[in-house]
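Morning - magnesium ion inputs below, output right after.
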Amino acid sequence: MAIQWFPGHMNSARKKAAETMEITDLVIEVVDARCPMASSNPMVEEMRLFRQRPCLKILNKADLADAKTTQEWIEHLNAQANTRAIAMNTKNPSAIGQILPTCRALAPHRSDATKPLRMMIMGVPNVGKSTLMNALLKKRVANVGDEPAVTKTQQRIELSSDMVLTDTPGMLWPKIELETDGLMLAASHAIGVNAYFEDEVAIYLAGILRTRYGKALSARYKIKDLSLLDDVGIIEHVAAQRGYRIKGGGVDFEKAAHTLLQDYRDGALGGVSLESPTTRAQVVAEFAEQKRIKAEQKAERERQRQAFLENNRRSNQHEDEAV
Ligand SMILES: Nc1nc2c(ncn2[C@@H]2O[C@H](COP(=O)(O)OP(=O)(O)OP(=O)(O)O)[C@@H](O)[C@H]2O)c(=O)[nH]1
Ligand SMILES: [Mg+2]
């Protein structure tokens, strides 16, 4: 089952964001560097393109991502029209100085007190929007916390006489189409814990770690021969290695699943990226192909239904004529 999370406050946040977009010159979209496309909100894209606003994408939590893959994403995103991308670790924001000059360059017509540059920070929950706002202001004006949906309302702050910044609540969208996007968002802690099963998400994460980050995975949990374990086996191994047991003696799978997720979230496995421009292109192409096949099957079923109805109609007509 695809993971979905669109609580009521996000619907209000969407309406409010659409209003604020009208009086915004530039969107700063904070995405998760470990899954920059899965964490790009299509609603933000739609709103911003409707108003033709440029976008600065901040690939945040870059300290937790695979540096090589993050660089590939930066190049990929910088090739898009009206978009600039910067990798960032807002907890240790040494690159923070790049942000405002890049924003100015994206909206050069807004540059003085009569026409201040109006920026809106948007993004999925728990990705670091408020931390970024605080870092830009160099003081704590917004609450931050490691759980989705800390910020509940917009907050507008003057950065200087010619720059205004609005922080917004984290937003997802009503239907996450790609199942793997939901899994990536849940693994990266952008989704409320009641909207998914941790063991399902951890099994997905184990699959990525096994195929792409086998060395770090084996080192962390002292796995001797990773080729002997499948995704579920990895979590069972974590449980055994940590001594997680349930009453009666079996392994505590849920606790081990939680540990794996927490280690990924804390960076204990080193830099991990869940998707790259190449894997993304593959997933999108597969999804489009599945959609095409489903549409063809639906059309074929409809064709058969119409043929059946037509046959019925003809045979009824035949019988009527015979009487
Ligand atoms: N490792 C790491 N953690 C970060 C980074 N930026 C933010 N965090 C942490 O991520 C968590 C969420 O940060 P917030 O700034 O509250 O995120 P937000 O996007 O405002 O979240 P909502 O308001 O809930 O949508 C906090 O625990 C931050 O300390 C980063 O660059 N690297
Ligand atoms: Mg916030």
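Note: The chain has a mean pLDDT of 95.

O.
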